[in-house]
Amino acid sequence: MADHRDGLPQGKKGNVLDRTASAPETFQDPGLPPHRPRSTDVDSGAAKRAERQVALLFAVSIIGSVLFFIGYFGIRVDGDIYSVTDPEATSALRLQNLLLGGGIALGMLGIGVGVVHWARTLMPDHELVEERHDVVTEAQRAEAEQIMGTILDESGIKRRPLIRNTLIGAAVLAPLPFVGLLRDLGPLDLTPLRHTLWEDGVRLVRDPSGTPIKASDVTLGSTFHVLPENLSGLSHDDGYLDEKAKAVVLLMRLDPDTVNVSPGREDWNVDGIFAYSKVCTHVGCPIALYEQRTHHLLCPCHQSTFDLANECEVIFGPASRPLPQLPISVDDEGYLVATGDFPEPVGPTYSQRVIAVNEMEEENGN
Description:
Blueprint: E1 12-13, E2 16-17, H1 19-22, H2 39-42, H3 44-74, H4 87-121, H5 138-155, H6 161-173, H7 176-183, E3 204-206, E4 223-228, H8 240-247, E5 249-253, E6 273-277, E7 289-291, E8 296-298, E9 305-307, E10 313-316, E11 328-330, E12 336-338, H9 349-365
């Protein structure tokens, strides 16, 4: 029987390509493209200018690190930074923030751009294809060592002392600002987290106005950011910010019939008004998001979610324990007051382990 597609060009059958008739048997390796030398490869003056530019960028990194240290150690912020009547404290804070942020930016940018400019202008840019193989024998180890030596030679770091010395200076100083910032994340002694300014009879006041709160002011579904009234008697030199960070509280009112209360905590709330620590138990971020319909509290940093209807147990996210609850009551004038401190330390869970170890060491020492 004759094929009705026989009239088509050779190598094709209808819409089907006969690959065996048209495909070549072998492919030739096109090889590497021709190398184009840079101006620094053929002009010693251009290479010298590039070397000075790289050294200048590393010097900028060093200057940035020095500016950070000036702002961190040299500028002291005294006074009330939140008061419009104390412009000196506000100006000092702004200058310090400028030096800290600008110093870190220059430190990282200078060393990063310097390394990139060094690689693009001075380091060899010829293409190289090499098969990867495992280093198993002594001869191969020696070969790998020789390759590393060749890399150092080609980088030019041995014959360019200006670049080498500025790079060493920038690399030594650049990480130090982060050491200072890590130190400021919190005190080395975490035992003070066990106690806050809350105690029996201390009124709950609004943040930042400092006005006391009556139970009748807290309507169903409302939320208040609360501080202890005795915090106002502290100055910044007395640890005002540290005590405020520990004692901040979220105050909310729920329908008592929708809340599960553990035995022994029946008198910790006032007709559905509950007070919980605002410090997330993951890494200590301030919790400020409240979903009224679901009764969920959310941490904006890492999305830990706490169920207010079940004593702030963790229902989502990396936090590993509920928010500490502040026991509250009402005084003779109808104002909300604390009946004691938090029953457990506030703050990240990891700090509780450190506190427990410190207390065990104190007990063993006694």
